[in-house]
Write a structure and sequence with these properties.
There is one protein chain. The protein is α+β, with helices and mostly antiparallel strands. It has seven helices and ten strands. Strands 1-2-3-4-5-6 form a six-stranded antiparallel sheet, covered by helices on one side. Strands 7-8 form a two-stranded antiparallel ribbon. Strand 2 and strand 3 form a beta hairpin. The longest helix has 23 residues.
C-alpha cells in the first residue's frame, strides 16, 4: 500500500517543492531521489538538506495512509519558517506561516484583481501614449477634434471598436502641448489632460505674434484672407481658426518677394506692415 502511495505522492511533492522555492528561493531547494521501485520496507521519512544546510525537507507517511511534507529553515535570529502540504481522502490544504519567539503572522492568498476593460477607462485615469486604446482615448480625440488639433478623419478604431492613440493623435497632442506651454513629448499625462479639459484658446489677432508654419489661430485665418485679397491665394475666404500650412507659407513667400523683403515665410513686424497696406495689391 505504501509503495503505491509513494508513487502517487511524487507529483504532489514536486508541486510542493515549487511552492517552497517561491517561499525560500530556488538555491535553497532540497534534492529528492525517488527509487524506481520503492518497497514497503523503505523508511517512512525522506529528507535531504539543501546546499547550504539550512533547509530540511521531510516526507512522513502516517499509519492511516495520510502523509505530511514539511520544510524547515533555521536562521541566526532563531526564527523558523515552515510550509506544509497534506492530503487525506482526496482533499488538499496549503498553508504558510512565519513565526518568531515574540510575534507571528499568517498570509492569506487571494486571486488577483480582474483586468480593467478598455471600455471602462475614463480620461485621466492613466497616461496615454502610442498604441493605447479605449474609451479614454476616444474622449481625448474628441477634445483634440473640438479644438482643431486633429481632424475627425484622423481618428482610427481597431477591430474591437476602440479608438487607438496613433501618430495623428500624438502629433495633435504635441501641437496642443506647444500652445499650452507644456513639454512637447506627445504623451497625454495628467498635466496635458487637465489643461486640455479646461482649455480656452487665446484669440490672437494678426500682428500679436510672429506667425510661422504649423501655428494655428484666428490670426492665421486673417493672414490667409489678406493673401487671398491680394491675389496670392485663391478664394474662398475662410472663417474660424486654421493652421498655417505649406500653401499659406508658399503664398506668403511670394508676397514677400514681390515687395522686396526677405522671403522668410514668417509674419514678422516688417511683413505685417506691408500686409496691412491696402494700396499695395497684386
Amino acid at each position: 500500500m505504501k509503495s503505491r502511495l509513494k508513487k502517487l505522492l511524487k507529483g504532489v511533492i514536486v508541486s510542493s517543492m515549487a511552492t517552497l522555492a517561491n517561499t525560500y528561493g530556488a538555491e535553497a531547494m532540497p534534492t529528492y531521489l525517488f527509487p524506481d521501485n520503492p518497497s514497503d520496507d523503505a523508511a517512512d521519512e525522506y529528507g535531504k538538506p539543501s546546499k547550504d544546510g539550512n533547509i530540511k525537507m521531510l516526507l512522513h507517511l502516517n499509519s492511516d495512509d495520510t502523509y505530511a511534507l514539511a520544510g524547515h529553515r533555521s536562521h541566526s535570529s532563531h526564527r523558523s519558517h515552515s510550509s506544509h502540504s497534506s492530503h487525506r481522502s482526496g482533499s488538499s490544504h496549503y498553508s504558510h506561516t512565519s513565526h518568531s519567539s515574540h510575534s507571528s503572522s499568517s498570509t492569506t492568498y487571494s486571486s488577483p484583481a480582474s483586468t480593467v476593460s478598455p471600455a471602462d477607462y475614463t480620461l485621466g485615469s492613466r497616461t496615454l501614449s502610442m498604441n493605447s486604446y479605449g474609451a479614454d482615448v476616444k474622449a481625448l480625440t474628441d477634445l483634440l477634434v473640438k479644438h482643431k488639433y486633429i481632424k475627425q478623419t484622423s481618428v482610427y478604431m481597431n477591430a474591437s471598436g476602440y479608438v487607438v492613440y496613433n501618430t495623428a493623435v500624438r502629433n495633435g497632442v504635441r501641437a496642443f502641448q506647444k500652445d499650452a506651454a507644456l513639454s512637447q513629448d506627445g504623451i497625454a499625462g495628467n498635466a496635458t489632460i487637465t489643461k486640455l479639459q479646461t482649455w480656452v484658446p487665446k484669440v490672437y489677432n494678426l500682428g500679436d505674434r510672429v506667425l510661422k508654419k504649423e501655428m494655428r489661430g484666428a490670426d492665421v485665418t486673417q493672414l490667409k484672407n489678406i493673401l487671398i485679397d491680394k491675389g496670392f491665394l485663391e478664394k474662398p475666404f475662410v472663417k474660424g481658426e486654421i493652421r498655417f500650412d505649406a500653401t499659406i507659407e508658399t503664398a506668403l513667400k511670394k508676397f514677400q518677394d514681390s515687395i522686396g523683403i526677405d522671403t522668410t515665410g514668417k509674419v514678422d513686424a516688417q511683413t505685417f506692415y506691408f500686409l496691412k497696406k491696402q494700396n499695395d495689391r497684386h
